[in-house]
Structure formats: C-alpha cells, structure tokens
Design a protein that fits this description.
The protein has helices spanning 23-40, 43-63, 68-80, 84-97, 102-129, 133-146, 150-176, 180-200, 209-223, 231-240, 245-256, 263-272, 277-289. By secondary structure, the chain is mainly α.
Length: 290
C-alpha cells in the first residue's frame, strides 16, 4: 500500500533529447517523470507507476552503481511503499556516495536504527518460539517503546500480533503437560502482550484471542490448587477492558473458589458480564445467607 505522498526531486535539468545523458541518467529522468504521474494517479494505477519507476531506477543503478540521483529516488520509493529493509540499504549507499551530505547521512542513520528495531522485534519472536517467553516479550516491549515513526511502530505492532498466539500455544502445551505453574507464567506474559497491543493500537478493548487464554489460565490455577493465582492477571485485564465479559466471569469464579466464597463480589462481576438475572439473584441470595 502507498502510505504517504512522495517528495519528488527534480533532478535533471538537461532535456532527454539533448543526447548528453548516459543510459543510466535517462532511466533516472524517466523514473522521475513516472513518479510525477504517480502523484496524480490513484489505486492500482498509482501502485503500477511506483513499480515501474522502481524498476527503472534499479536498472539505472545496475548500469551505473554511482548514480546518486537514482539512489535518492529509489530510497523515497522504498520509504513510501513501506520497504524499510531495502530503504535502509539504499540510503546507506547514497550516503557512501556523498559523505558530505548531512541530510543523506541522517537519513541513512535513521533507517538503520529503524531496521535494527524491526530486526530486534523479529528476534524476540524467535526467543519466544525457543521457550524464552519472558525474554522475548521484554524485547518486544523494548522495541515498541523505542519506535519513533508510525510505519516502524506499525511493523513492530504487527510482529507483536503474530507473537502472542505463539505464546498462548506454549502455555497451552504446558497446561496439557500438567506444568501448571509454568503455564500460568506463560499465560500472564500473553496477557501482557494483549495489553501492550491494546495500548499500542489505542484501543480500550483486548483482542478476542485473550478470552480463551484467560479461561485456560483459570483452568491451570484450579488444577494447580492455587485458585487465587489468576486474581492479579484478571484484574489487570479489567483495567484495560472493564467490560470484558470473559475477564469478569473468570474473576467471579476466583471469588467463588475462595474460602469462604465471596458471593456478593462474584454477583457484581457476573452481572457486569451479562449473566442471566436468575443466576445473579442466586449469588446475591447466597451472599445474604452468609
């Protein structure tokens, strides 16, 4: 997708028909003209013109690896189309070709830093898959906090979205293997991920994937004989998403498993979760009797 407008550099003052240009320069000039057209186009036509200009510039660079103007235009295309990995390489090469240009140097440094953040986020997913869930989540959080540009942030958020189901799978396997304390720790990290995702996307609700995970966490706590183990986790979920039905219902179960059961609080939580009136009334009646 084309994310934002491209700042076109008007590079060539010599007309293309003058015969004074190399083939590489002519391709750069042509790409520049193509990009002007792209700014006036929409949808598929815009994408097609960007792709055409991209190919022209790559050919120009192949013919003349020192064509700085081609690198500058190509860097802008990679930037606009969200290809940060390639943009990093292009701006670094452009800066090498003209080390006196401070703007190019700053651009190269910025892209290198952005790419390092994305790479670190990807490595964090590998950590999670290898079993180091806590370390991977910490690295993902650090990468997200460190991002300063919207497109880089969006990429790190995307990586986080992909990582959370992997964390839940680890927890599910631990639950299946009856490693209940480990499963609880893993589910807690998954919830931190869902909370971080909600914060990063400025949403007041948790991703629906958190629902089944919270239920599984309660199962692990119950099986471990530590029914209160999910108390903090579920309360934390409700700080982000107060109306989350599953979080309210699962927390109600925690209160009901206490000795003695806290029927009144459980009733309030079940009511908030939209439980049937008869069930809520039954809990309140129990509270009156106790």
């Amino acid at each position: 997708a084309i994310a934002r407008p491209l700042i076109i550099l008007i590079l060539l003052a010599v007309p293309i028909l003058s015969g004074c240009q190399t083939k590489s320069e002519k391709l750069t000039y042509s790409a520049n003209e193509t990009l002007k057209q792209a700014l006036q186009a929409n949808g598929q036509e815009k994408a097609k013109l960007f792709s055409q200009a991209h190919d022209q510039l790559q050919e120009a660079i192949k013919l003349d690896p020192n064509n700085l103007d081609a690198y500058k235009l190509l860097g802008q295309i990679d930037d606009v189309t969200g290809n940060s990995e390639e943009a990093t390489k292009v701006w670094e090469k452009a800066s090498e070709l003209d080390p006196t240009d401070q703007k190019l140097l700053q651009q190269a440094r910025m892209y290198k830093a952005r790419q390092e953040m994305i790479d670190n986020a990807s490595k964090a997913v590998d950590q999670i898959k290898s079993g180091d869930v806590e370390g991977g989540m910490r690295a993902l959080k650090d990468a997200l906090v460190a991002t300063r540009t919207p497109d880089t942030r969006a990429k790190v958020v995307g990586i986080l979205q992909e990582a959370i189901p992997d964390i839940v799978k680890v927890g599910d396997q631990q639950l299946q293997d009856k490693k209940y304390p480990d499963a609880l720790k893993t589910y807690d990290q998954a919830l931190r991920g869902y909370m971080l995702l909600a914060e990063a996307t400025k949403k007041q609700t948790l991703d629906p994937g958190a629902d089944a995970m919270m239920h599984s966490a309660n199962d692990a706590a119950k099986a471990a004989g530590t029914p209160d183990a999910t108390f903090r986790m579920l309360n934390d979920a409700l700080t982000v998403d107060p109306d989350n039905k599953v979080a309210n219902m699962e927390l109600a179960q925690v209160y009901l498993r206490r000795t003695p059961p806290d029927y009144e609080t459980a009733a309030d939580l079940e009511e908030r979760a939209g439980a049937p009136d008869a069930y809520v009334a039954k809990l309140r009646a129990e509270a009156q009797r106790h």
